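Go through this:
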Amino acid sequence: QVQLVESGGGLVQPGGSLRLTCAASGFTFSDYVMKWYRQAPGKERDWVASIFTTADTLTIYTDSVKGRFTISRDNAKNTLYLQMNSLKPEDTALYYCTRAGNDVWGQGTQVTVSS
């Protein structure tokens, strides 16, 4: 069955870095635009970044993470990544990956930025 499994979250101090991983299975990963979302406590789930399927792997980001986060993919490993640098307390959230259509979600991985 189609499955997405996120990992890599944790507790990090402001200014620190984390790399999130999303392992995909059950579908042709390389055919899909892939995305990261996040949901802070008491707030809606918000889009963070997308990576397309074109040869140049076009990427787009929400304004609040531009220049700090990098989305990437390894189609040979069916894996999506989110490199997060210069983390801020407002980045604290449960982070999810999904594919185009938002029809499948992982369980999420918690990122907490605190001193």
Residues 18 and 33 are 22 Å apart (CA to CA). The mean pLDDT is 95.
